[in-house]
Every structure is written in structure tokens, then in C-alpha cells.
Amino acid sequence: MRILMVHGINQENKDPEELKQTWIKALKLGFEKAKLDFPEGLTFDFPYYGDLLLKLQSNYEAANKGAEYNLKSTSPDTDTVLSLQEKILEEMLKDTDFTNLELEPEQPAIKEKAIYNHMPFLALARALDGKRYLGNLSLVIFTSVVAAYLSVNLIRHKVDQKVHSHIFDDTDVVIAHSLGSVVAYNVLNAGKKGPVNLKLFVTLGSPLGLMRVKAQLETPVKFPPCLSGKWINLYDPKDMVSLYPLDAENFNVNPEIDNFKMENNSNNHHDISEYLSDPLVASYINKLYVDRKKS
Predict the structure, then answer these.
(1) How far is the C-alpha of 128 from the C-alpha of 130, rounded, in Å?
(2) Does residue 48 have a pLDDT over 70?
(3) What are phi and psi of 233, to 5 degrees?
(4) Mean pLDDT for the stretch of residues 47-62
(5) Between β-strands 43-45 and 258-261, what pairing exists: parallel, antiparallel or unpaired?
(6) What does the pLDDT look like over 147-179, one tens digit per residue?
(7) Distances in Å between the alpha carbon of 94 and those of 91, 240, 253?
(8) In this structure, what are the phi and psi dihedrals at residue 187, rounded to the nearest 5 degrees?
(9) Sheet of strand 227-235, all strands in order from the earlier edge strand to the far edge
């Protein structure tokens, strides 16, 4: 059985093999939690694009100061990457309770959601960054990287190309986290040579349900044509990246995606190890493995 793993953002300047082993370790823990034996003979493909994405984004921004990004939305309030970034932040923060937010002395007090009328979203995100309940998840960095990937053709093409180069005819499972779920979705729907018979697509902490993210995808959104099996999505409502399930309301595809609410107990509720070690992921992979051995 062959499994493709697609990482998210904030992975630059890291060792690809160490990252890959972190994912495998988390998956093995999930099998332990599910009281299942870890399958023998699994092949793991881990396309690392962390440094590539950082370089592409930095080069583009240096060469195009103040330039508009290639956005699909025709709305005048999303013409630039900054405005798209703010709109994504607006979605991510709209249900956040700021009542008990602890701010530094120099930061203005935030007591109600009406703060949106008095403080730009990027400033609000910077105030939130580094607070305990966000941990190491930087909203400013996350939204800027997502906006750049979605709206700059060169960046999207190069990242997609890197991931696509690790898809093979016998790829059985794709597991994707965070921005990686958007990348994997684009690659699987690109119409290029892909898996002959993909059996399982697993998205973890995915921002695909955000309206401003979805608006930048090819429309209408669709179930990957190469996927003959299930698409399962795990999300934590406290995870500001994956606030919404990928259901008919937020990501309407046919067949429907199987959504599972879970608790990601990391400090930012978005950590890949917490998502990937959920026994539900292991149980789905194990079923495929057992069925394969029977056939």
C-alpha cells in the first residue's frame, strides 16, 4: 500500500526526512490507540515544498511590490493579496470570543466583536499571534502564505508540480494537512496523470471550507475524479484554520465528504501529530489494508 503525505505551511528550513518520520510516528500512534497492528510493507511518499514555497513567495513579493495578485474574485474588496488576506482572517476570526483575551500592556483592550469596526484585521491578528490559545500558529503568516499560493499562478503551479511528482499509479491513500489539503485537492483535480484507483483521501485541519479560500478554486468544487473510495475530513472547531466541516453547506461535492469532529489538544488546536494520531485515521487505513490482503 502506498501513502502520499502532503504537509502544510511553516515547514521551511526543516529536514524533510525528519518531518516525514514525525508524520509516520503520529500515524503509528493512531494505530496503537485503535489497538491495531501497524501494517507491514507500507510505502510513504513525502513531497517537501516548504523551502520552495518560501522562496517563491519572497521572490514574488520582492519583484512585485504593490502589485495585484491574480485573483478570481471580481469583488473590488479582494483585488490585492492584502485584502484577500484580511477577508480570510475575517472568516477565521468572526466567531472568536475576545472577552478573555490577555493582551500586552501596549495593546488596546478588546472586549467585544465590535472591535472589527475599530481595528484592522491584520492588526487584530498580530495582537492575537503568540497568545496561549493560538500557540505557534501565526494568523498573519498563515493567511499571507495561503493568499499567495491561491492567487499567484507561478507559486501554485510550482508547488502543485512538486506534489504531483510524488503521485504514482499505485498511490492508494492521500493524507493532507492544513494548506496541504488545498494543494492536494488542486493536484487531484488537475486532470493530469494521477492514481489509477485512489482509495482514500484524508484531510486534516483543512481551510477548504473557508469561503474566501473556496472562491479561488476552480468552480464548481468537485470530488476528485481519481478517487474511487472515501474522502474523510477531521476538524476541530477550535482550530481557527478548519472552523467548518466540509459538508454540503461549506463544500458541496458529490459524493459527500465524511466529516468527523475531534479534539486537537495541541496549544493551537492545529498540530499535525494530534490530527494524524487520531485512531479514526488508522481504522480507515487498516480497513483498506485488510481488504487488500483478502483480495
Answers:
(1) 6
(2) yes
(3) -130, 125
(4) 90
(5) unpaired
(6) 889 888 899 999 999 999 999 999 999 999 999
(7) 5, 10, 25
(8) -65, -45
(9) 43-45, 2-6, 171-177, 198-204, 227-235, 258-261
Greatest C-alpha distance within the chain: 65
Q: Which three cell numbers stand for residue 178?
A: 492544513
What's the 3-state SS for 68-132?
CCCCCCCCHHHCCHHHHHHHHHHHHHCCCCCCCCCCCCCCCCCCCHHHHHCCCHHHHHHHHCCCC
pLDDT given at position 182? 97
Q: What's the grid cell of residue 74?
A: 471580481
Output the pLDDT for position 283.
98
CA distances to 8, 83, 115 from 77, in Å: 27, 6, 20
Phi, psi of 250 (to 5 degrees): -105, -25
CATH architecture of 2-53+151-294: 3-Layer(aba) Sandwich (3.40)
Which ranges constitute the DSSP H helices of 179-257?
179-188, 211-214
Q: What digits encode the pLDDT tens for the residues 198-210?
A: 999 999 999 999 8
Closest CA to 69 of 147, 141, 180, 182: 147
Q: What residue spans define the domains of the chain?
A: 2-53+151-294, 69-147
Query: If residue 232 lies in a helix (H) or strand (E), which one and from where to where?
Result: strand 227-235
The model's pTM: 0.84
According to the model, what pLDDT value does residue 215 have?
86
Q: Which pLDDT belongs to residue 145?
A: 87
